[in-house]
Amino acid sequence: MKIATFNVNGINTRLDSLLAWLREEEPDVACLQDLKAAHEQFPRKALADAGYGAIWHGQKAWNGVAILARGSDPVEIRRGLPGDPDDSQSRYIEAAVEGIVVACLYLPNGNPQPGPKFDYKLAWFDRLLERAKQLYASGQPVVLAGDFNVVPTDEDIYNPKSWRKDALLQPQSRERYQRLLAQGWIDSLRDVFGEERVYTFWDYFRQHWQRDAGLRIDHLLLNAQLAPRLSEAGVDRWVRDLERASDHAPTWIVLDP
C-alpha cells in the first residue's frame, strides 16, 4: 500500500501536474494540502475520472486539505482539528481507508515570527499533540501525513544559517515535533533514509530547486500498529521539475500487507 502526501500549492492551478503524478505513480492514498479552493471548487470529477474517490475540507484562496483513495471512497472520521471551536482555517481532516486511519494535516507556517501567526502555529501544534496522543492510543493503525512546516533538525535543510529566524526552524517548533515523536510515532522518511539527506520542498527563490537547496518539511508519521509494515519511502522529485510546479514534491511510503 502506497501512501503519499503532497502540498499542491493550488489544486486547480496545478491540476494537470497532480493528475500526471497520480497516473504515473498510482498512490493508493494521497493526502493533499494547500488546495486554495472553496469547497465547491474542488475538482472532484477530474479526480474521479482518474480513479480516485475523495473527501476534502476547502477554504477560499487559502489552506484546504483532502484525502484521495484509489478505487474507493475514503470514509470521513473528522473534519477540523479539535480544541478550538473558533478556528476557521481548513487544515485537518481524517478518514478511514482500507483499515487505516489517515490524518491529513497542514500545520501553519507561522511567519513572521514572533507575532500572532507564530502564536497560532504553536497553539495549533499543541492541539495536534493532543489529537495525536488520542490516535496513537486508539489501537488502530494510524498515519499522520502532511506539510508540518517544521524542519526537524539541521540535517533536514541544505543550510540552516540563512533560515535561523524562520518559523520552520524555531526551537519551539522543533521541540513540539520532538514531543510528537516522543509519543511513539515513527518519522518514516528518516527511518528509511537514516542519515542521508532528503528534501521535500524547494522554494521559488534564488534557484533553490536548480541548486538542490531544499528542506524536509513534509512528513509521514506511523504509530506502533503501522510502523512494522514500513518497507519503502521516497520523494517524487520529478514532479517538482514540471512546468509551473508546486514548491513541494510528493513524499510517499510503502506499507507491506
Automatic annotation (TrEMBL):
Broad enzyme group: hydrolase
Keyword Transmembrane helix tagged: no
Keywords: Hydrolase, Magnesium, Metal-binding
Required cofactor names: Mg(2+)
InterPro entries: AP_endonuc_1 (IPR004808), Endo/exonu/phosph_ase_sf (IPR036691), Endo/exonuclease/phosphatase (IPR005135), ExoIII-like (IPR037493)
Tagged with keyword Hydrolase: yes
Family statement: Belongs to the DNA repair enzymes AP/ExoA family.
Protein name: Exodeoxyribonuclease III
Organism: Lysobacter arenosi
